[in-house]
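Structure ticket #2291
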Amino acid sequence: MNPKLPYVLLVGAAVIIFILSCMLLSRGRRLPSCESQPSVVEKTGSMSQSLVFADLTPEEMSRVVRYLQGNLGVPLVDASRAKPSDNCIASVDLQVPAKAEVLRFLDGGGARPPREALAVLYFGNQAEPNITEYVVGPLPLPAYHRDVTVQKYGGKVPYHRRPTPGSEYKQLGVFLQTVAFAAAPTFLQEIFGYEGTNVAFQTTVPHGFQSGDRVTWFVLFQNVSGFFVHPVGLEVLVDHSSLDTSQWAVSMVFYNGQYYRDMVQLESAYVQGRISVEKVRKAPWDGDFSSMKPRAPAAALFPVQFEPQGPRYSVRNNHVLFQAWSFAFGLSVSTGLRLFDIRHKGERVAYEISVQEALSVYGSNCPGGMSTRYMDGSFGLGRYTSPLVRGVDCPYSATYVDTHSLSESLRPRKRKASLCIFEHNLGSPLRRHYSNLQSLYYGGLVNSALVVRSIATVGNYDYVWDFIFYQNGAIEGKVQATGYPSSSFLHGDGLRYGNRLWEHTLGTIHTHFVNYKVDLDVGGVKNSLVAHDMAFEMTRAPWSPEQQIERPRLTKKVLDTEDQAAFRLQSKMPRYIYFAANSKNKWGHQRGYRIQIISFAGDHIPEASSMERAISWARYQLAVTRRKEEEPTSTSIYNQNDPWTPTVAFADFINNETITNEDLVAWITAGFLHIPHSEDIPNTVTVGNSVGFLLRPYNYYDLDPSIYSHDGVFFTNEQDFTACEINPLACLPKTASCLPNFLPFTYDGFRNM
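Resolution: structure written out below.
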């Protein structure tokens, strides 16, 4: 044996031990933490100009309530316990100041407009019950109130138009259990095993067929998780038009395809064996097929985004800054998410972008389903904004904002983390080019955008509302629909109105329509509406006259009147339609912002319908009108319960007024047809159920503003693309080698229900 061999082996072993030790030490060394980032931003802090649009604070809401209690001279009952014959406060929200006042303050150095609240009250305890709206101010110490009902609506608002409060639904539940169901004990016990708690109700709207009606179908379901897809075949029509709850009565009953005068007749028919019975298998408490509990065990964690150098946006009070963007945000009780004073590179491009309404029209061969037309603003798209789940509803590291509202209560309610703001890398380039002709280079820009999101859960549906800000100056408004499909009991010719989703479950066909208000101010308040499109023209080739060429050319038209600017839902609309400024870019073109609608809507309800005027905004995919303070919204919360005499009829906004060089508003409608199918069980996915619009610069700038983004990447074949100063991506292993500061998971969605 070679005497040197043991020494060689010892040295080799030592080297191996050293290498392994280094590897273990390096693995054990903890990476540095990423820069700290705010996770929740409370809406407090120093005053700024954006606070003119800020939602009311809890203290302001409480002071308005105390003022109304002490200055109206009538008793006010807590709406959560009020009877229809009581007086109560339905809601308190911000009264947005007039635009002219706000612009004088923001742009002209004028006085800050007085801060005021809008209070909606139901006066049931009066000789002539009515709905009254008061403006209360100035806040934070209210000293006056004025009735604005007649000014806004041209007259008093009848009491029957009031949205149905939760207290009335509770009272209706008691009526069904103690009066209606008491008349059919044998049927309910033997068919449903009814014991008082094992059924759930879903109500329908509007309440009847003519003004003054307050008659509602209650559809019964098994009271299990996801009850919306567990119908049992029984529906009860209740007349609750009287302010005296003792006068409420059952008007009609429907069971398994047959109508009965009342529950007494249903019970008699059952006892005598004259009824076709369809027993439904009792579902477990988790709903079985409707349970959203995952059917698979946990596995590798899904990808997450994080910000290695902290967020690149800021949120102060209700004001957001992101790269060249700035805007104020808020949440209306009825209409939900809204933005104000939207600026790009310091210049205002829009004064207001806001959700107006979400409408669904259903079909079915059951009475409840066939009569349902949900106008969700009357229930409250802001009121039913739900707390967000970190990591699913929004990225884990997003900024979460608490919101407050006062609705059907004397006290404000706090919703933890009900709005989120985050920068989102979409995983694709905003623009790019790889050149392999003439010169060799690569240039590109990651598509990273800022998202503002809220999610409203209104009954069975969840609406994900987004406003998205891109680096090229574009804004997107988008809504994604998810949640449970509404369903009817499958019987008879039910498959004419949808698909079978389970043994007795008919997923009913329905439309979704969403309306937005977009008050663009492009290069100033005064704008015109211009349409560009294309047409083919035939010409002879100048170099070969015997040959014909078909070439597209640009068509241009200024739309002078509101009638010209109202585009019906399924009609052909110019593919380029934009708000034009009174100024031009470097190349002599009118600066503009283009409106691009993303929609695949179903058909609008026929205009011959007695209730169509209440939802006449849905006639149009786009309608541009003169902006008027007396036309702040396209609809009203009072239209739901009296669509036959609508409090606000959008069709009246369009009266052929001139819209050239005026302050204009675009009313945008997007939607989709939903025919529920088996993949909607357990519930509907957002994929394919997303609609909205884009606002895109059109000759507004001299070139794409995103070229000034710090995120741009460019290198040639002659450069060292591994050098950080040439290519920032080359430094990613260093700049992104940190551990994100993820906060512990919390959720407050089940508190204070």
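Closing remark: The chain has three domains: 50-153, 166-290, 313-698.
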